[in-house]
Amino acid sequence: MRDVYSAIADATRRQLLHMLAEADELPLHEMTARFEAGRTAISKHLGVLKEAGLVEDRRVGRETRYHLNAEPLREIQEWVSFYAGFWTRRMVRLKKLLQEENR
Question: Taking the model in full, what pTM does it have?
Protein backbone atom coordinates (compact mmCIF):
# COMPACT_ATOMS: atom_id res chain seq x y z
CA MET A 1 0.00 0.00 0.00
CA ARG A 2 1.31 3.44 -0.95
CA ASP A 3 1.90 6.13 1.67
CA VAL A 4 -0.94 8.67 1.92
CA TYR A 5 1.51 11.56 2.30
CA SER A 6 3.33 10.74 -0.93
CA ALA A 7 0.00 10.21 -2.70
CA ILE A 8 -1.20 13.74 -1.88
CA ALA A 9 2.20 15.35 -2.54
CA ASP A 10 1.28 15.88 -6.20
CA ALA A 11 -0.93 18.86 -7.12
CA THR A 12 -2.82 16.92 -9.80
CA ARG A 13 -3.70 14.18 -7.33
CA ARG A 14 -4.86 16.76 -4.78
CA GLN A 15 -7.06 18.31 -7.45
CA LEU A 16 -8.49 14.88 -8.31
CA LEU A 17 -9.30 14.30 -4.64
CA HIS A 18 -10.99 17.69 -4.47
CA MET A 19 -13.10 16.88 -7.53
CA LEU A 20 -14.12 13.54 -6.07
CA ALA A 21 -14.96 15.14 -2.72
CA GLU A 22 -17.43 17.42 -4.50
CA ALA A 23 -19.10 14.59 -6.41
CA ASP A 24 -20.47 11.25 -5.35
CA GLU A 25 -18.73 9.53 -8.21
CA LEU A 26 -17.01 10.54 -11.43
CA PRO A 27 -16.10 8.60 -14.55
CA LEU A 28 -12.55 8.81 -15.86
CA HIS A 29 -13.52 10.76 -18.99
CA GLU A 30 -15.12 13.56 -16.91
CA MET A 31 -12.01 13.93 -14.77
CA THR A 32 -9.68 13.79 -17.78
CA ALA A 33 -11.64 16.58 -19.49
CA ARG A 34 -10.68 18.97 -16.67
CA PHE A 35 -6.93 18.53 -17.16
CA GLU A 36 -4.45 19.21 -19.92
CA ALA A 37 -2.87 15.82 -19.21
CA GLY A 38 -4.12 12.85 -21.17
CA ARG A 39 -6.22 9.92 -20.07
CA THR A 40 -3.18 7.74 -19.39
CA ALA A 41 -1.60 10.30 -17.07
CA ILE A 42 -4.82 10.81 -15.11
CA SER A 43 -5.28 7.03 -14.88
CA LYS A 44 -1.80 6.74 -13.39
CA HIS A 45 -2.57 9.44 -10.83
CA LEU A 46 -5.80 7.66 -9.91
CA GLY A 47 -3.81 4.43 -9.57
CA VAL A 48 -1.50 6.08 -7.02
CA LEU A 49 -4.51 7.39 -5.09
CA LYS A 50 -6.11 3.95 -5.24
CA GLU A 51 -2.94 2.29 -3.89
CA ALA A 52 -3.04 4.72 -0.96
CA GLY A 53 -6.66 3.79 -0.29
CA LEU A 54 -7.92 7.29 -1.09
CA VAL A 55 -9.89 6.34 -4.18
CA GLU A 56 -12.08 3.38 -4.98
CA ASP A 57 -13.45 2.43 -8.37
CA ARG A 58 -16.22 0.35 -9.86
CA ARG A 59 -17.09 -0.72 -13.35
CA VAL A 60 -20.38 0.34 -14.88
CA GLY A 61 -20.56 -1.23 -18.30
CA ARG A 62 -17.43 -0.17 -20.16
CA GLU A 63 -16.89 2.82 -17.90
CA THR A 64 -14.88 3.03 -14.68
CA ARG A 65 -16.27 5.34 -12.04
CA TYR A 66 -14.24 6.65 -9.13
CA HIS A 67 -15.21 7.89 -5.67
CA LEU A 68 -13.33 9.26 -2.69
CA ASN A 69 -12.49 7.25 0.40
CA ALA A 70 -11.53 10.03 2.82
CA GLU A 71 -10.74 7.76 5.79
CA PRO A 72 -6.96 7.64 5.11
CA LEU A 73 -6.92 11.45 5.24
CA ARG A 74 -7.71 11.23 8.96
CA GLU A 75 -4.03 10.42 9.58
CA ILE A 76 -3.03 13.66 7.87
CA GLN A 77 -5.67 15.63 9.75
CA GLU A 78 -4.34 14.32 13.06
CA TRP A 79 -0.77 15.18 12.08
CA VAL A 80 -1.72 18.71 10.99
CA SER A 81 -3.86 19.19 14.12
CA PHE A 82 -0.86 18.44 16.32
CA TYR A 83 1.16 21.16 14.61
CA ALA A 84 -1.76 23.58 14.65
CA GLY A 85 -1.76 23.22 18.44
CA PHE A 86 2.01 23.61 18.48
CA TRP A 87 1.83 26.91 16.59
CA THR A 88 -1.12 28.14 18.66
CA ARG A 89 0.88 27.60 21.85
CA ARG A 90 3.86 29.41 20.32
CA MET A 91 1.71 32.38 19.34
CA VAL A 92 0.19 32.59 22.84
CA ARG A 93 3.71 32.64 24.34
CA LEU A 94 4.81 35.29 21.86
CA LYS A 95 1.78 37.43 22.64
CA LYS A 96 2.50 37.20 26.39
CA LEU A 97 6.13 38.10 25.81
CA LEU A 98 5.20 41.14 23.73
CA GLN A 99 2.65 42.26 26.33
CA GLU A 100 5.28 41.99 29.08
CA GLU A 101 7.76 44.06 27.07
CA ASN A 102 5.15 46.78 26.44
CA ARG A 103 4.51 47.28 30.17
Answer: 0.80
Q: In whole angstroms, what is the distance from residue 23 CA to residue 39 CA?
A: 19
Distance between CA atoms of residues 88 and 80, nearest Å: 12
> Are 66 and 20 contacting, i.e. CB atoms less than 8 angstroms apart?
yes
Pick from 62, 63, 28: nearest CA to 42: 28
Of 48, 39, 40, whose CA–CA distance to 8 is shortest?
Answer: 48
Per residue of the chain (103 residues), what is the pLDDT tens digit?
A: 679 999 999 999 999 999 999 998 999 999 999 999 999 999 999 999 999 999 999 999 999 999 999 999 998 998 889 898 889 999 999 999 998 888 8
SS3 assignment, position 38:
coil
